[in-house]
From TrEMBL:
Record-linked Gene3D superfamilies: von Willebrand factor, type A domain (3.40.50.410)
Name of the protein in its database record: von Willebrand factor type A
Domain VWFA: 26-205
Alphabetical list of Pfam families matching this protein: VWA_2
Domain of life, source organism: Bacteria
Length: 553
């Protein structure tokens, strides 16, 4: 899975390099934050892969590139208006974009067409060059037409492009969003699995514009001394006296202004770098992991420069575990607030990272459990540490009756509350999940689980101990009612018994000729309505664990 996340990061980075470095000046990333992003690839939620990939990519993007960030489906369920430009396009926004992605909730629908339109408008696409990068794992669910939007934006824009990353889409699904890229002259990258992603990278690299050829060097006078092959060979170490870092590090080179601040961006190189710089003043920025340092140098013709930069950093290795002796939790969030950072970085599972020396505030979250430790880190040293969160693992399922059939269709939901009520009589909600085999990692405590299957709702208390695994099997004492009402425009289910005012409580309805739902055992009235306002009513008795079929004519 780490390879897949790195490949996705490489694909998005390559796409940015193609659009940012060669064509457009400003970019807005649009991230799908719909509920489907909770689906997993090789046991890891797609939303975690997307967050990790964005974070990795943004670390490699030059600070002067103007990047914005938009998401949809992150605040409201079922809303086609839930679109937000969280980070406006601006230089130096990488940390803000990473933080925004890490704090998203993934709960809503997929209004991707409207989101891309709003991103284009935020970039003033009719006035300037602009690029939108859409990362989606689903198709339009709000009646938008991405193909038509692509043609419209291309016609009205100034060198406007949309690039689409189809994350986990099938080939047929990909065709339905690829037109958004095709109609604007952009690229569609299929990222359904690691192999497909690698193929997409090959295609993207082959399509990237070739760099302009180097100008031929001027002939040297016969008496001039031979020019060195390289005039700039920097080295970087974690601590004074340490061995040079030659893999995983980067060199960011800028022209230096007269006041010593960074000027125009020149290039970014990696590893054991050797190169040539034209005479002039430069600011050299060395980075490795989360650590960085910079140095100003003046290059003169005919001289060779071998600057040594010291990061004053160490290596921190964290193994997050749910309980003592348990295996590492791959989905655990490891948040590290290191010296000098405003927005802490978030990693997942086993974490190894280079950090500036000093006290590291490390917070590990597994499900609803959280623990924070402060770990001192010395320059040039390695700290390898287990952090135990102390949670129990719960798997919840609903059954129509004890020992009966398991509820495994749609309309299944679970909510976990603290058992102890607040002063106002309500309970604090702790977590929620949907579907069968819903999983929760919870700190030791007493809880109440609410299980919902369509119109049937049941509460069950339970307790959690650290390191304990338990399967909660909740009997909802319900059956299934399948209603058919030929010619009906609406079907509605009521309590059979009327209240003191002669009214019956409505339990559920559907605008259709058929309606199926789970109901607690008992008696009910069913009313079907037609477009001419005529109605029919029938009664039915639901037996727990059984299916009832009713025709209302």
């Amino acid at each position: 899975m780490a390879g897949l996340a790195q490949s996705i990061a490489a694909a998005i980075l390559l796409l940015w390099m193609t659009t940012l470095g060669l064509a457009a000046d400003r970019v807005v990333i649009v991230l799908d934050a719909s509920g489907s992003m909770w689906a997993q690839i090789d046991g890891k939620p797609k939303l975690e892969i997307a967050r990790e990939s964005l974070r990795t990519v943004l670390q490699s993007v030059p600070a002067d590139k103007e990047i914005g960030f938009m998401a949809y489906g992150h605040r409201e369920k079922g809303s086609c208006e839930d679109i937000e430009l969280i980070v406006p396009p601006q230089a130096g926004s990488a940390a803000a974009v990473s933080s925004a992605a890490d704090n998203l909730k993934f709960i809503g629908k997929t209004p991707l067409t409207s989101a891309v339109r709003q991103a284009a408008e935020a970039l003033k696409y009719t006035e300037d060059k602009a690029t939108v990068i859409l990362i989606t794992d689903g198709l339009e669910t709000c009646k938008g037409d991405p193909c038509a939007l692509g043609r419209e934006l291309r016609a009205a824009g100034v060198d406007f492009t949309v690039n689409v990353v189809g994350f986990g889409l099938t080939a047929d699904e990909g065709k339905q969003v690829a037109c958004l890229a095709d109609n604007t002259g952009g690229k569609y990258i299929q990222a359904s699995d690691e192999k497909a992603l690698q193929d997409a990278l090959v295609e993207t690299i082959a399509a990237a514009p070739a760099p302009a050829p180097e100008p031929a060097p001027a002939p040297q006078p016969a008496a001039a001394p031979e020019k060195p092959q390289f005039n700039f060979m920097p080295a970087v170490v974690l601590a004074e006296g340490g061995d040079p870092v030659t893999d995983g590090n980067s060199w960011e080179i800028h022209k230096a202004k007269s006041d010593g601040t960074r000027g125009d961006y020149v290039t970014t190189e990696y590893g054991a770098y050797k190169g040539n710089l034209e005479p002039g003043d430069y600011t050299i920025v060395a980075r490795y992991g989360e650590a960085g340092t910079e140095q100003k140098i003046t290059v003169e013709a005919g001289q060779v420069y071998k600057p040594l930069l010291t990061l004053n950093a160490g290596t921190l290795i964290i193994h997050p575990r749910p309980s003592e002796g348990a295996a590492v939790a791959d989905g655990a969030a490891v948040v590290i607030a290191y010296p000098g950072v405003d927005t802490p970085a978030t990693y997942y599972g086993d974490t190894k990272v280079v950090l500036p020396a000093g006290d590291q505030k490390v917070t590990v979250r597994i499900g609803q459990g959280e623990v924070t430790e402060t770990i001192p880190l010395t320059a040039g040293k390695v700290v390898d540490k287990d952090i135990v969160v102390g949670v129990g693992h719960v798997v919840a399922n609903a059954y129509y009756i004890s020992g009966g059939d398991k509820a495994d269709g749609s309309g299944i939901g679970f909510k976990v509350f603290k058992a102890k009520k607040k002063i106002d009589g309500t309970r604090q909600e702790v977590a929620y999940a949907y579907g069968p085999d819903s999983k929760f990692d919870l700190p030791p405590d007493d809880y109440v689980l609410t299980a919902t299957v369509d119109l049937a709702v049941v509460e069950q208390p339970f307790s959690v101990k650290a390191g304990e695994h338990q399967d909660l099997k909740i009997a909802i004492n319900a059956g299934v009612l399948a209603i058919t009402a030929p010619g009906a425009s609406k079907i509605e289910i009521f309590d059979a018994k009327k209240d003191i005012n002669g009214n019956r409580k409505s339990l559920g309805y559907a605008y259709d000729e058929k309606y199926q739902a789970a109901l607690p055992a008992g008696d009910y009235a069913v009313v079907s309505e037609k477009l001419d306002n005529s109605s029919k009513e029938s009664t039915v008795t639901i037996t727990a664990g059984e299916r009832a079929e009713l025709t209302v004519q």
